[in-house]
Amino acid sequence: MTSKTPITVAYGDGIGPEIMAASIHVLKEAGAQIEIDEILVGEKVYLSGNTSGIEPRAWESLRSTKVFYKAPLTTPQGAGFKSINVTTRKTLGLYANVRPCVSYHPFIKTKHPVMDIVIIRENEEDLYAGIEHRQTDEVYQCLKLITRPGCEKIVRYAFEYARRNNRKKVTAFTKDNIMKMTDGLFHKVFDEIGVEYPDLEKEHWIVDIGAAKMADTPEAFDVLVLPNLYGDVLSDVAAQIAGSVGLAGSANIGQHAAMFEAIHGSAPRRAGQNLANPSGLLLAGVMMMVHIGQPEVAERVHNAWLRTVEDGVHTYDIFREGVSKQKVGTKEFGEAIVARLGQKPQQLKPVSYASGESIPPGAAVAVRTPAKKETVGVDVFVNWDEAGRDPNVLGEKLRVVNGDGVELTMISNRGQKVWPHGAAETFCVDHWRCRFESTTGALSHAQIVRLLDRVANAGFDFIKTENLCTFDGQPGYSLGQGQ
Ligand code: NAD
Which of 53-57, 139-143, 445-449 has the lowest mean pLDDT? Predict the structure, then answer.
């Protein structure tokens, strides 16, 4: 007998308590050896005045169990309430979001009868770093941060996942035809790490056409690995086209902890009526059982669930006249699964977790020697709204700050080069990037500070700078569009 594994459980809000009770009942009846530490997170905590939504004791529990089984939560409307999902992912470093999207044709309505894909989404960076600024009256900015360790961790995770789960192919989606540096890094790391997995097929798609292909022909894909934003959007698309967002579970994996949840929300209108479908949370629980080393329980539960679905025992959301046999509530659906423990589906493909398939734990990052960095210029962003926003006037006015080893070489507006030799048709806002390049080799911080001083003395409102650096001699910055 396995010793009991402690897990932290949050029953959540809305339909949360009902679907969590049903899920835990099924897992325990299937022989799950778990010891539950219940914590309070969500609406009640928010409304008690704690804007984080998490009681302080919860972190102690999570740090000690390292496994979080979480029902959906209600985030109250209004400013100031932090999303618990984001806080938990970031605090615990849960960098990989794993979401299997499978269709259950002909038992659950789907446009894609043979769909069986797993979306692996990077969970911590990209535009979700949450670094936003209003820079001028007209211009707002969100920083997109893509890091080499972040790419290495998620890409390696995806390949490991594919290998361990007998998948054949890993596909990356990026937009590196446009974002050559950030998405380009993701693609590059995908190619680099892919070499270590000769047994797996690898491919890369530009995200727009890839997304279209996935929505149209999901059977062309197997495991997908995506940066955060694309993954966020496409994992919902994938779950929806597989059949229903109500059926998908997800795992959030990090090196130190993991969180398992349904992908849907707390559906407050359905709460307390024994109506909700517990499948998403239960299937997340199946991933959790694999994660904590009880794959035989995972397999028993998953196969019994498939059999229940196949037998036409359905909650209201998946019930269809003529296909479904029995409309049941949350509790009864759980009991129907329990009654089928030990059985396998007859038409749907049974799952097998005992043969070494598992969710890989968070991977470590390779140690690298940093590249040699040299500063060769600086982009000074200015808020300027004079002279009818004529870039030639701005260029002329800024010439006075040249000198001390730096020279203005380009001005762009929203990335489009407008000086020198801009096009009169280009629409300009009040936010200008003025590129100064060194005329003498490496540029010092002191030179940049003196440049900013001259820019301010010339009457300009500078709002930020970005250093232009080379790394091992390669430029670490993009050119202006049209430069
Ligand atoms: P929702 O997912 O709760 O509901 C969307 C629709 O799907 C509703 O019609 C609902 O009745 C139905 N539905 C969802 N889950 C179902 C289930 N298990 N069985 C049957 N029907 C189901 O999304 P929403 O209405 O946009 O959000 C409600 C609340 O949930 C909000 O407070 C939101 O912040 C929160 N939310 C939480 C999470 C999370 O905790 N991970 C995720 C998304 C939304």
Answer: 53-57
Give the list of residues 6+ apart from residue 341 with CB closer than 8 angstroms, or none: 29, 30, 300, 301, 304
Using one digit for the tens of pLDDT, what is the confidence trace for 391-433? 999 999 999 999 999 999 999 999 999 999 999 999 999 999 9
Compute the distance from residue 230 Cα to the ligand 1 centre, in Å.
21
Residues lining ligand 1, CB < 6 A?
15, 19, 72-75, 85, 246, 261, 264-270, 276-277, 280, 317
Q: What angle do CA 228, 229, 233 make, to 5 degrees?
A: 115
Is residue 99 within 8 Å of 118, Cβ to Cβ? Answer: yes
Delineate the domains of the chain, giving CATH numbers in brackets.
Answer: 1-93+243-356 (3.40.718.10), 111-242 (3.40.718.10), 373-475 (3.30.70.1570)
pTM for this predicted structure:
0.93
Please tell me the residue having the least CA distance from ligand 1 atom 36.
265
- The whole-angstrom separation of Cα 454 and Cα 428 is 24
For 318-398, where are the E strands, in sequence order? 326-327, 373-383
